[in-house]
Amino acid sequence: MKRDISYLLKRGVSEVIVQEELTELLRSGKKLRLKEGFDPSFPDIHLGHMVGLRKLQQFQELGHQLVLIVGDWTAQIGDPSGASVTRPILSSEQVEANAQTYMEQFFKIVDQSKTEVRWQSEWFGKFDLADVIRLTSKFTVAQFLSRDDFNKRFIAGKPITITELLYPLLQAYDSVAIQADVEFGGIDQKFNFLVGRELQVMMGQLPQQCFMTPLLVGTDGSHKMSKSLDNYIGITEPSAEIYGKIMSIPDSLMMDYFELLTDLPDKELNEFRQALNTGTINPMELKKRLAREIITQLHDKKTASEAEEYFEKVFQRRELPDQIKEFPLNLCCRDMYPEQTEVADVYIPRLLVTISFAKSLSEANRLIAQGAVSIDGEKILSNTAHVTIGNIIKVGNRRFARVVNTDREAGK
User: Which of 59, 2, 14, 73 is closest to 180 using CA atoms?
Assistant: First the structure.
């Protein structure tokens, strides 16, 4: 469905620079070029990304053209500060693989037929030192030190590399290269967007409008949704996992999620707020509605209903799910001693890593220390435990595995 201009510029929006100019452009009937860039250091999209992508899709509904910029050139440089694990140096093959995965997820939300994909290396691959010097001459160091994160580090006496100062310029030149009319992103990108707007004017172009969306708080209830903080909900995760994670968010985040991630009318959202304030509705029922709405967008109503049935069975009625992952365990000497069904002192951290319930031994140890690991309903309090065929290993609230025997022909 098409939204009116007022809806586009108010629902799920932090700031628009300049709103009057963008309103005039939208009313003019001009087909706008909408800029969205992404860093292919990691390939996956989560609900935090979905906030901005939904706005892009709404603009596409009005006939505007999305230009997706793959940051392949800067991704092969890596994090300029050298201190970030979220921006590793990547090979061109890694960048291409990540970009492909990203776009497969990206086009689950936006319209591929109205999207032009551009690779940053198209223009930066031709840059020489003279081009870089000409670009850097456009701005002063003082201007860039006004950026909040740079300013804080400068005052604290922490190092800022020259390469870092180049990043806003490179992002700004992307806008020049594709002649962007509007650049989209989170409110944390405001400085970079404004540099792009200013550089376009210097290069003889009309200044882009800056369209900034709120930063979605993650499942921890306190920080921006991020894979590095493990407080994210990935859009390609199993629907039951998405449903369960949404049900785990603090009640205080519910209305933000409704506003930023669903198409429910503002009037209905106001009714939800009033019902929550007066205590006339159970927050869990609203959270179930939220989970259904989001999963229906990503999949369909049937998938959303199945995810809800799984949640009610496993978490509300405390029953085992119908489908449980199997963990094959080779029981030593079972052929000679058929009655043996137990192995003493299995190293549980290694078991959790093997069945992909933990990414590392240190993470597995943390899960055990937090009381998040149980076997047949009994919490594991040490790193070793007896394991029996048929045992149900549970980690957290959503991960189950059943121990089964393997290698029955061993020794023959």
Answer: 59
pLDDT, tens digit, 9 for 90 and up, residues 304-335: 999 998 888 877 766 666 566 676 666 554 44
- Entry pTM: 0.78
Nearest to 329 by CA among 318, 344, 316, 319: 344
Assign domain 325-405 to its CATH superfamily.
Answer: RNA-binding S4 domain (3.10.290.10)
DSSP string for residues in 318-378: -PPPSS-EEEEE--TTTTT-TT--EEEEEEHHHHHHHTTS-SSHHHHHHHHHTT-EEETTE
Radius of gyration of the chain (CA): 25
In the numeric block, the tokens 């799910």 are attached to: 321
> pLDDT tens across 235-255, in order?
999 999 999 999 999 999 999
Tens digit of pLDDT for each residue in 370-408?
888 888 777 888 888 877 777 778 887 677 787 776 554
CB 340 within 8 A of CB 408: no
As given in the structure block, the two tokens for residue 78 are 């890596």
Contact 60, 114 (CB under 8 A): yes
Is 241:398 a contact under the CB 8 Å cutoff?
Answer: yes
Q: What percent of the chain has pLDDT over 90?
A: 52
Please state which CATH number belongs to domain 239-316. Answer: 1.10.240.10
